[in-house]
Amino acid sequence: MKKQTEKLSSKHALPPGSVVYIGDREGETSVFTYGEYDENEFTEKQSRTIGEVFPFPQTRRVRWLNVGGIRNTDIIEKIGGECRFHPLMIEDIVNTHQRPKYEDYEDSLFIVMKGLSWCGETYEITEDQVSFILKNGYLISFQETEENLFSSIMDRLRMKKGMIRSHGADYLLYVLIDAVVDSYFSLLETLDEEIEALEETLLENPTPETLKKIYMLKSTVISLRKTLWPLREIIGRLEKMESPLIGRHTRVFFRDVYDHTLHIIDTVETFRDLIGGMLDIYLSSVSNKTNEVMKVLTIIATIFIPITFLVGVYGMNFKFIPELQWRWGYFGVWGIIIIIIAGLIAFFKKKKWF
Question: DSSP code of 4?
């Protein structure tokens, strides 16, 4: 949190719309993937130089530019200037430490989402910000990483799979958002497996390491919940909005994404409840172990109390103790001790105390 706050403080006293990269990704280069298509034809280009794929050629076909890597703010400003994006839109693209959001700028729609990936060693979720800008006839997507998260969508365009080639840029936006949302299901499956494995460990042999993992999972699920809850509002607005940029037929598909989003959020809430219950189980298990140890110690102490009393009496330094002169006194005391131990053990077993 400190690191994130320090990055955000770099914008102190700057005017609104100032383009300052706020993120953790290294590297100055970007990868540009450009696709242009209609129902009959598809062309694509990939370059590390923005001039080879931008500005867009004048055409009636759907145009899609995917920018991988947003650390170089000059490139983002150039794209924004050519397309006449709102300054606040450009500012939000390079600010990767923000919640998912949706903005309607009348002539364009701006959407911010998070691509999530699981790190099994640290029980952490890595966030990669993805931004979409939809204007009349084209779509631009910005990724925090150079790796193309939508390579499978590009394959569908090449092979003309599904309805994507026969629809406009609004449908392409739906396909990309749906791909991001569907990737959350894979993450939830992994998280579910980790929770099940942790539950088994918790029931068999909980250790301080188990408690550490529980707290790490709890922190992860809370962070995941903060990321996914705003998505419900975003998809809901896309489903119900009356923008000319999104056709009526596409809003039906956003309704399906909205249902997926609700399912994801419900699953995350279930995970949060499960982890909270696991924490209670761990504390109860540790308490039960402590009680078992205390019970054993109490039984041992109870057995030795009368024995200690007996040997204490005959350990007194009085000169005239009748039993001290008895030939079988030592063996008699041992006999009494054994009888006491046997009697107490039988009593405890009868009471089922051990």
Answer: H
Q: Which of 108, 128, 110, 93 is nearest to 17 (CA)?
A: 93
**Given the structure tokens 């992994």, which residue do they identify?**
190
Q: pTM of the entire structure?
A: 0.79
User: Measured between alpha carbons, how far is 1 from 97 in angstroms, rounded to an integer?
Assistant: 11
CB-based contact 141:130 (threshold 8 Å):
yes
133 sits in which H/E element: strand 124-135
Rounded distance between C-alpha atoms, residue 207 and residue 197, angstroms? 14
Q: Using one digit for the tens of pLDDT, what is the confidence trace for 320-344? A: 777 777 878 888 888 888 998 898 8
Phi, psi of 22 (to 5 degrees): -125, 100
The enclosing H or E element of 269 equals helix 248-313
Q: What 3-state class would DSSP assign to 241?
A: coil
Q: What is the pLDDT of residues 43-100, one digit of tens each?
A: 999 888 888 888 888 888 999 999 998 888 888 999 988 888 988 999 999 888 888 9
